[in-house]
Specification:
The protein is α/β, with parallel strands linked by helices. It is 63% helix and 10% strand. The strands form three sheets. Strands 6-9-10-3-11-12 form a six-stranded mixed β-sheet, with helices on both faces. The protein is elongated. The N terminus is likely disordered.
């Protein structure tokens, strides 16, 4: 049973795809009606041609007026068929690309709600591949389905009805041979789904590797790891080629197989139709035989198209399943019903018996207690992996505590709306983030209504104004992805300028000056001193020289606060902090 499940889309995938049709019922009904009209006109044309043939070969004088009238009707039918097909394609495009837009919007909106634990455990490139490449593959299959499946089914039903009206006996021959074509298409479809799914998965892995290689190109080059990265890409490329060839092979034999079966249908119709049209007891006229042959051809043609559509739909469903995996990923627990906004916080922060771990197997923070008074500056130091950044993650509610509580002004932060909490906490990280846009837009990212004067003032306060003015276009300089050609220090200055523009009641500086030279850092520290005045501030730092003025220093090790006090008191204790401090200034 498990083996069989790999060969088809997860249960409910098609139903979820169809659920996106709710907003496009008008276009769906229009497409169906236009499909019926197109098929009806298409099937009327052979009748007219058959009548014209019978008039031409009839004994006696040829009735040219009647023949001309038939051709006029045929011309009108051809024109109406073309118009109906065009309108049907417009309706199908509206449905397909509307559904694709909605799925992408839903996926992007959902990704804004997922917990950080989910993003930390996924490859960014694979998520991007699902939302972009897989949705494109899905739209191709869906469009083909709407365009050809409706018309194909209508054509099959319509031609059967018309053939029954002309000659039920020969129609029986057609019906008896048809199941062979359906069995061939179903046999191939069952074997193509898991191949297309594997193809999409490898494509996602390839996208992730490309993003990794391009984003970390300097690191790769620094370690002369180009060949190793190329080998990994070559291996994935070979796997993608093999998966694509297998999927293409099975999908490519669909059409020839069904064409062979359909040729048998056409041959049977021609043979039995010819026998019925000759002799004294003929039950078919030559015109009716011509009409019947045309119907037989039209009847079998949709099977070729539908078999191709089924293959493409297997690919589309495989891609849809990967997209829905993203949409089904867990979201952050919603704010509690009684959660309210944090209004004008004073900055009293308390960690009360807090326990937290990223995984149950590896405990990290255990029974942490801390009280921070309004306006105090708290520094957090310790070796890598001791839990410094985790404290910040918990304070920002990127993760929730496993036990205990974190309080701001006496309120459990879980009773505060996340958006309100994060608006009250300004944050500058070690890893800078700048979006594609001008320097002006990047500084004003958190305050779209900021004036030019306010933006310049913030840049001056962060000591970024001088280097910005040296750029050819100044504040209108366009930055590419992640800051383009700016140095790491310059990018950090812009991030600090962004915070200077809209200073919140509480501040978090996570290695905020680690990428800035010592001279600039001294000026930044003065700017921060002004900014931090009267605001509760948490500073995570490796450079212990930058935290001497802190009101309290928390020394962490293995997730626990092992020492706390001001700089002088901790040095006098001659404990772990003193060892860390002296190791940084040892000659």
């Amino acid at each position: 049973m498990p083996k069989q499940s790999k060969k088809r889309a997860p249960r409910g995938t098609l139903r979820r795809v169809l659920s996106y049709l709710k907003g496009y019922r008008f276009f769906l009904v229009a497409s169906l009606l236009l499909s019926v009209g197109t098929v009806l006109f298409t099937l009327l044309l052979p009748v007219l041609i058959g009548n014209a043939i019978d008039l031409i070969i009839a004994p006696g004088n040829v009735d040219f007026d009647a023949i001309l009238s038939i051709f006029k009707k045929a011309a009108l039918i051809i024109g109406a068929t073309a118009l109906f097909q065009w309108l049907m394609n417009v309706s199908n495009n509206k449905m397909t690309f509307g559904i694709v837009r909605n799925i992408r919007n839903d996926a992007f909106a959902h990704l804004q709600k997922v917990p950080f634990s989910y993003l930390d455990s996924q490859k960014t490139g694979d998520i991007v591949s699902r939302v972009i490449a897989d949705v494109d593959q899905f739209s191709d299959g869906l469009l083909l389905g709407f365009t050809q499946l409706f018309t194909g089914v209508m054509t099959i039903l319509g031609t059967l009805l018309f053939m029954l009206l002309i000659h039920p006996g020969i129609t029986l021959v057609v019906v008896l041979v048809t199941p062979i074509s359906l069995l061939v298409a179903a046999f191939i479809a069952r074997r193509t789904y898991h191949m297309f799914k594997k193809q999409s998965e490898i494509r996602g892995m390839q996208t992730a590797l490309m993003e990794e290689a391009i984003g970390s190109h300097k690191v790769v080059a620094a370690f002369s790891a180009e060949q190793a990265m190329s080998a990994r890409f070559y291996d994935l490329n070979e796997r993608l080629r093999d998966a694509s060839l297998k999927a293409t092979f099975f999908s490519s034999i669909t059409n020839p197989s069904t064409r062979f079966v359909n040729s048998l249908v056409y041959t049977g119709v021609a043979l039995f139709g010819a026998l019925a049209a000759i002799g004294a007891g003929a039950t078919l006229t030559v015109g009716e035989l011509s009409c019947f042959l045309s119907y037989a051809n039209q009847y079998t043609k949709p099977f070729n198209e539908i078999s191709g559509v089924v293959t493409e739909l297997q690919n589309a469903l495989a891609c849809a399943a990967r997209i829905f995996e993203v949409l089904d990923s867990p979201t952050e627990d919603p704010d509690r019903e009684d959660a309210t906004a944090l209004v004008a916080p004073k900055g009293h922060v308390e960690f009360r018996d807090v326990c937290f771990s990223y995984s149950f197997e590896k405990p990290l923070i255990e029974h942490m207690n801390l009280t921070v008074l309004p306006g105090q500056r708290i520094a957090i130091v310790g070796p890598t992996g001791c839990g410094k950044t985790t404290v910040i993650n918990l304070l920002m509610r990127f993760y929730d505590v496993n036990e205990g509580a974190i309080l701001i002004d006496g309120r459990d932060i879980r009773s505060i709306k996340r958006s309100s909490l994060r608006e009250s906490l300004g944050m500058v990280l070690q890893d800078t983030w700048l979006h594609s846009g001008t320097i002006r837009e990047n500084i004003a990212f958190g305050n779209a209504n900021a004036t030019d004067e306010e933006i310049v003032a913030a840049a001056k306060a962060a000591h970024a104004h001088s280097f910005i003015k040296r750029l050819e276009k100044g504040y209108d300089t366009y930055l590419g992805e992640d800051g383009g050609a700016l140095s790491q220090g310059q990018k950090q200055l812009l991030c600090i300028s962004r915070l200077m523009l809209s200073p919140p009641p509480l501040l978090i500086l996570d290695e905020a000056t680690s990428s800035i030279d010592t001279r600039t850092e001294q000026r930044i520290q003065k700017a921060f001193a002004t900014l931090m005045r009267g605001r509760t501030t948490f500073v995570v730092a490796h450079r212990l020289s930058t935290i001497k003025e802190s009101d309290m220093i928390l020394v962490m090790k293995d997730g626990n606060v092992i020492e706390q006090g001001n700089h002088e008191a901790l040095l006098a204790r001659n404990g772990f902090y003193a060892t860390l401090y002296h190791s940084q200034f040892a000659k």
